[in-house]
Amino acid sequence: MTEESAPVAAAEAPAPAREPKIIKRYTNRKLYDTVESRYVTLDEIAEMIKAGAEVKVIDNRTKDDLTSVTLAQIIFEEEKKTSKMSLETLRDLIRYGGEVAQRLVEGARGDLRGKVEAVRAVAEHQLGTLLERGVATGDRAKELVTASQEAVAAVQKRIDERVRSAIEGVSSIGEARRQMEEMAKRIEELEKRLDERKE
Predict the structure, then answer these.
(1) Which of 24, 43, 79, 197 could form a disulfide with 32 if both were Cys (CB 3.0 to 4.6 A apart)?
(2) What is the domain partition of the chain in residue ranges?
(3) Closest CA to 162 of 174, 146, 179
């Protein structure tokens, strides 16, 4: 954890570790979801991961952990369908392995943390302005602070969960970009809500 991210992380309680959903891979290459008691496809596993589920793939016979191999297959299959990654990114992934993806994710995380801090600063400034003008009563000010803190904490929690999932699973770079854009939109919505409360 960097010094910059320490204050943000301290503002929220640590997320409890979730037990991963166990997927068994049989010798015939079929994948079996032990929680839902049914066979699943790589696409379905990708959707589980995108929805935030923790997934662990094990070889039914040897009990070897095949999660990273399966996630690499998912990335390969998605890239075949959509071709979202540039050739340069793909070459770098081959040359340098997961380090490239981790640097991209950490850079995105830093950008998102900066935006969260900016929203927090705007909220604090607006609250200060309201209090200086005497517009808000003590109860209204408390409500505004609580709502702002809860919104920022919720955004930060979602960012941390998605980044943690991305780092652990080295998911598609295109998906990470989509999630960053989605988070940026949510931050803009929070800023608009804060501006509306100011008025």
Answers:
(1) 24
(2) 16-92, 99-198
(3) 179
